[in-house]
Q: What sequence folds into this?
């Protein structure tokens, strides 16, 4: 029998700094809940909204795999490797901080906020060479299926990270049902509902609700509303 943990949207940490409104699924900065430190190798899931023209100044990271998924607007990235890039909805950005990196992130738009998910995954090796990756995906390829966006493999068309983790995005018609198969024994899946209403393994979930599932080899997803959108984050549980 699979194990599950339910995190409703309203139970997340809520940090509103004016220029930044961030909802924290797991303990982060001033938000601390000893019951919500991580889900396996998934350490941070921040749902961020940055005001027009504002952003995060240059700051350091090390030994963390950082994935950014833009939802609305344009996010500008600069880092100590010389990377200058702009990401928008449909893009996925990966930064392997490894032995150490500094970067900044700004809302490139002066007239509207930028919304994005910032996700941290604990790597499976320390002090790797820092690396930046970015892909642009065809949004039609996630209609009524799961489109892989992150994996451990540099050769399979997704962005890759230093961990046996697979991320997928799907957008579904009402009443569509689909199963997701776990890639590696011992992994669990943290499902995060970006939009709409779904039922996952018998649990009714609404927008920004999440369900962690482990000790299973597949999970069932049923869409209860049109254009329901779900992010699946499959990660090792033994940390």
A:
């Amino acid at each position: 029998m699979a194990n599950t943990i339910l995190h409703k949207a309203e139970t997340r940490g809520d940090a509103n700094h004016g220029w930044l409104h961030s909802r924290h699924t797991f303990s982060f900065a001033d938000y601390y809940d000893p019951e919500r430190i991580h889900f396996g190798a998934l350490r941070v899931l921040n749902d961020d909204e940055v005001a027009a023209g504002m952003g995060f100044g240059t700051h350091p990271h090390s030994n963390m795999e950082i994935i950014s998924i833009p939802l609305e607007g344009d996010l500008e990235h600069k880092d100590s490797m010389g990377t200058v890039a702009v990401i928008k909805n449909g893009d996925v950005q990966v930064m392997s901080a490894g032995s150490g990196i500094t970067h900044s992130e700004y809302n490139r738009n002066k007239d509207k906020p930028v919304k994005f998910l910032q996700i941290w995954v604990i790597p499976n090796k320390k002090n790797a060479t820092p690396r930046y990756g970015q892909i642009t995906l065809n949004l039609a390829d996630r209609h009524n299926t799961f489109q892989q966006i992150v994996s451990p493999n540099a050769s399979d068309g997704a962005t890759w990270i230093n961990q046996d983790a697979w991320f997928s995005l799907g957008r579904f018609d009402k009443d569509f049902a689909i199963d997701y198969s776990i890639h590696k024994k011992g992994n669990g899946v943290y499902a995060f509902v970006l939009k709409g209403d779904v039922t996952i393994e018998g649990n009714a979930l609404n927008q920004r609700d999440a369900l962690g599932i482990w000790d299973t080899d597949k999970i069932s997803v049923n869409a209860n509303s049109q254009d329901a959108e779900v992010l699946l984050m499959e990660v090792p549980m033994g940390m």
